[in-house]
Amino acid sequence: MVTEFLNEDGSVAQTVNGTYEFSWIVTDRVIAGRSDMPDLKRSSGILFYVAPRTRQIEMVSVGADGVLWVMSGALGGETRTTQEYPTAAGGTGRLRFTRYNITRDSFESRMEYSEDGGRSWKPGNRQVFKRAGGS
Q1: Distances in Å between the alpha carbon of 77 and those of 57, 61, 96, 108?
Q2: Among 39, 118, 122, 135, which residue has the fewest nearby CB atoms (within 10 Å)?
C-alpha cells in the first residue's frame, strides 16, 4: 500500500509505504487485520464485519494512540464514514473513505475530512492497495 497524505489544496505533502494483512475470522462475515506504516512507526488493529440485518459493512480500527475509529457504509457500497468527533475548534468532524478503481488485485481509496459536521469535505489522503503476489 502507498499512502499520499494531502495538503488542503490536494497537493501531496508526504508519501509513505505500508502493508495491510487480513484473515477471515468468520467466513464471509468477519475479517481481522493490521495496518503497518513503518516510516511513521504506526500500526493499528482492524476488524471488518458485515451486519446483514442492517445491510451495513462496518470497520473498527485502533492504533497506539488508543483512538477507536468506527466506520460504516452500505453493504456493496464504496463509501464509509466515521462517527462524529470533537474538533480542536470546538465543532464536529468526520472522516469519509471512498474506494475506486477496483480490480481483482488492487483498488484505490480516498480519505476526506470534514470539520463542520459533514457539510463540506477537504482532502486527507489517497491510498493505492495492491494484493501481494497479485497480477
Answers
A1: 9, 19, 13, 14
A2: 135
Closest CA to 32 of 44, 41, 17, 22: 22
Torsion angle of the four alpha carbons 79, 81, 87, 91, in this order, in degrees rounded to the nearest 10: 100
Number of domains in the chain: 1
Q: What is the pLDDT of residues 7-33, one digit of tens each?
A: 999 999 999 999 999 999 999 999 999
CATH number at residue 72: 2.40.128
Work out the average pLDDT over 51-66: 94
Q: Which domain holds residue 47?
A: 2-130
* DSSP letter (8 states) at residue 116: S
DSSP class of 104: S
The answer to the question of residue 135 being in a domain is no
Asked if the structure places residue 83 within a domain, the reply is yes
- Tell me how far apart the alpha carbons of residues 109 and 71 are, in angstroms, rounded to a whole number: 14
